[in-house]
């Protein structure tokens, strides 16, 4: 059922907007939304060295009980895993709800709820709370609310964009992850001297503000603003309707269905988007489980850097000097700067090669020597540290970005669904939820392994990257077979081959 335009669009829209205008608006609002989500996750990484400063040379901060004792580092690791465990478990539920509820309202609720509990974690500073259970509980509830974000924004993007150039578009759009990490680090570090609680309160207010922007301006479904959803590819997906008559190009069958209103395109929902499918049905889509397991290890690597890189920088002598907490927080943002370029490059390459699995695996394998170089030579000088950090960020975040965006959207609109687009949020939740289990395990293990030396942490990261690439081997072979088995005599692919992604193998 169409709900009409969001209230902000009703207020500011002076005339009918084109499809392209709405697409730009959707990209912008969802970008802002996930910048806020990721920014609100950064304070925990920034304040680690304030809460547990024992290992820092010439520590400026005295620490905060219960994290300043001998088990402080392990407790911080437990805080991380509590957040990420609830995030990953909540993702499976959130994905199904996202396919069943109004995505705009669902996303708004998740952002405001996240802001409240991120802020409450910081309120522990102002209320002088020193009970471990309080911080653990705040992180767990925040993790559940944060789970609403990713399935929702990917589903919205999938509603508005077809598969053509999806990798490049989503690679650019997925810069929100790194922009959020960068802005979150800078904002959290900027108020650290006023008290570590301000880092959480400031970022909690930011994501709540983002939630109001989503509520006012996000058109989650094309039909809410006068476009008719048509399952297909690129421009055939959506057509403008005026008084029930189609006025933009579409296939003859869709035209007849639209005029007659019989909806005989395989959907059973009144709004044309079809029914939502179950977790088991979504898992049976070819490629979902394989990419989900790959993302498990890819996010293990990425989130270890996300949560522990600022702490690592304060404990590592770089060019003969130790960094302050604030400087380490600011420097760690360069890992995400590299990640921005990595996401764009991976998306562009996967579009040009029509090979998502080959691209993702290549990046993961290349990340192995990059991380080893960072560990070995990153302490030589500040410039060497920056260079190898950015290279590692590019190679680690490239496949992570590709799988969580373009691959998830591809699989969520897989042809085996026979036009049922409402698997988008569910498929995204399965892939990213499984990945988030790895994201929980990585920081948890780091909390224990770092007490024995950072070399063991980097061994874990190298093994994670290797296994992530190895898991894609069956899909890589399928993509190679697809390319070698379906070519014209002149070596060019047929239009059908070019349009379809080799990773999405159909049942023959």
Total helix count? 21
Gyration radius (Cα, Å) is 23 Å
How would you sum up the global shape?
A: globular
> What's the end-to-end separation, in Å?
36 Å
Largest sheet: 3 strands, antiparallel
Q: What is the chain-wise order of helices and strands? A: HHHHHHHHHHEEEHHHHHHHHHHH
| Percentage of residues in strands | under 5%
Strands, count: 3
Oligomer: single chain
Biggest β-sheet: strands ordered side by side in the sheet: 1-2-3
How much helicity do the residues have?
55-70%
**Which consecutive residue ranges, at least 5 long each, have pLDDT under 50?**
230-273, 487-508
Q: What structural class do helix, strand and pairing data support?
A: mainly alpha
Round the mean pLDDT to the nearest integer and report it. 80
